[in-house]
Amino acid sequence: MRKQQFIYKTWKELLLKVSFFPATATEAKDKTILYFHGGGFLFGDREDLPEAYLALFLKNGFHVLAFDYPLAPETPLREIVHCLEAGVHWFLENYQSRLNLLEPDFFLFGRSAGGCLASILTANHYQHQLGLIRFYGYHHFDHEEFVLPSPFYNHYPKVPPLTAQQLIQNQPTVVSGVAERFPLYLSARQYGNWLSYLGPKLNELTVNDKQLEQFPPVFMAQCRKDPDVPIVSSQQMAAAVKQCTFLELDRNAHDFDREKNPTATDIYQKLLDWLEEQIRNRK
């Protein structure tokens, strides 16, 4: 598949990039999915969307723009959000001149921590945002699962905090693979100190029910027995958003779409149908 790369922002000498995948369909819909990766804000790669599902978007006429963002704890979450706000504005300012698109209409899509980021940015009420796609994400941090030792992650070999903190860099960093930084996240969840890595003023990044009532249409999917992110967060959003499609999967998994499988393929097909519906409703 074709791909272009652009720098959308320089953050403390760190080059933040986007990967642009133009639609491969004969007739592109000229709608773009702005994608934010997962990784608990501590690790991850902008191109972590499984290739099978990326290709599905492209062949159905949707462009995909995948974003870097600086990682915590070297960069506090509030600054991560500011960087991605700049990323959305970069798209809106450059969709014609750099990406050769005719329309600025977009959907925000995030998985896990990326779903949190997409939720926070949706509260900005972008004029051209047609909807929010959130897979196993959240919109606030007021869950006891985030501050208590995780039974799921404590099945893994223990990573003491002092050992994990040796992975923290002296300068902002971006695009870190699972092998490099997952032990930092693992330790944070094992010892219940994950939120301390995200910086101060997390309450200011909470999306409240009043804001959710003003959201554009939302499509969500999450496993009912998600061992990482409490499903109650998705249930709360589904109850507050006026137009919400929420699919609860009867599985014990977090990123149910990590690899291609029949359940995930069915979810993505339902998502494509939902995307088509939002475009029809916009006309």
Automatic annotation (TrEMBL):
Location of the Alpha/beta hydrolase fold-3 domain: 33-256
Q: Which keywords label this protein? A: Hydrolase
Q: Which Pfam families match?
A: Abhydrolase_3
Q: Name one GO molecular function term.
A: hydrolase activity
Q: What is this protein called?
A: Alpha/beta hydrolase
